[in-house]
Amino acid sequence: MGRGFGREGGPDRARLQGAANPGAAARPARHFRWTNTPALPIDGPDLPERTSMSRIDLMRAFVTLGEIGNYRAAAESLGVTQPTLTKQIVRLEDILGHQLFFRSRQGTELTEFGRAYLREVQPLIHEADRIWDLGLRMASGDAGKLAIGFTFSALEVMTHALLAFRHTYPEVELSFDDISSQTQLSMLREKRLDIAFARWSGAGDLASRLVARDHLALVYPAELAGVITSADSPALREQPFIRLKQAIAPGFEGVVQRFLDWKGISPHSTHRVNESLVQLRMVEAGFGVALMHASSVTRIIDHSRIVVQDIASGPKGPALDWQTGLYWRRDDRNPVVRAFLKIVREAIPAPVEQ
């Protein structure tokens, strides 16, 4: 005779629990939460009042058995005993009021209702698995988002750090933007950035680490190599200067102006642009000369068309070099930030502060 289902026609709980020991008193049913560790009891026998998490546990047991089709193998996959899995399936059938599986000596087979219900439940359980795994990866820093600001002077050291980080944490979503140093630090304090590669200033309210040093470089077309041999060449004074807009890079433009004042150069023509790469292209095209970050131009230009001359700070001249720091919030507990800082410490030796 077939077994009934539903609240009134459900299985005898004492029969299920006492099958292994007929003389034992009936004990409350124990239900189990799916984790990556062995199953743990989570509630008592009042199934109609169980939480949504408990329902997900039962549905996951059903999906696993429905996909595998074998109680022993499904129980092993779930990390529970076979009797526990049997109880979970029986409980779910009680709640639904309908049989999910045919049981026979040949094995376990879904009923027509079970097949239809499996199609509905599978996406939910698979999405729950995905979210669970994502949470674990985010907690360990293996997944998540990281917003980074940088200046052109930090381009080389930043790309070196990002390549090492992406190799180790490929699932982290990276965003980065070329922003002036002061704006970066403001955005970092406002939590609009997670990491800032900015001019070294030792901002006391932020955690920081020195990562690079840089200096000024004179950049001019190769066709002028015969008349411009140094920063003191008279021909330099006759050339148009291509400079960044003051608002774009106020700190760097201050260094440029100190150099011009020191050499007594008053360009007869100045072109202002928004980006350093535009400066390079205009110099390459022969529209003038430029003073730029030495570290950023040495590897991205065609030396057959452009000449780069380093300009060092003289003992009697103004400071024409500077340092770049990595900044982050002291109270930031984002695992992705901690993972990035670890990569930076491993990949970028800290230069000696000057």
From TrEMBL:
Stretches with biased composition (Basic and acidic residues): 1-15
Regions of compositional bias (Low complexity) in chain numbering: 18-27
The keyword Iron belongs to this UniProt entry's keyword annotation: no
Keyword terms: DNA-binding, Transcription, Transcription regulation
InterPro entries per record: LysR_HTH_N, LysR_subst-bd, WH-like_DNA-bd_sf, WH_DNA-bd_sf
A Pfam family the protein falls into: LysR_substrate
Family annotation (SUPFAM superfamilies): Periplasmic binding protein-like II (SSF53850), Winged helix' DNA-binding domain (SSF46785)
UniProt keyword DNA-binding present: yes
Recorded GO CC terms: protein-DNA complex
GO molecular function: DNA binding; DNA-binding transcription factor activity
Gene3D superfamilies recorded: Periplasmic binding protein-like II (3.40.190.10), Winged helix-like DNA-binding domain superfamily/Winged helix DNA-binding domain (1.10.10.10)
Superkingdom of the organism of origin: Bacteria
Domain HTH lysR-type: start-end pairs: 56-111
UniProt-annotated stretches for the region Disordered: 1-27
UniProt record similarity statement: Belongs to the LysR transcriptional regulatory family.
Protein name according to UniProt: LysR family transcriptional regulator
Organism: Paenirhodobacter populi
Species classification: Bacteria, Pseudomonadati, Pseudomonadota, Alphaproteobacteria, Rhodobacterales
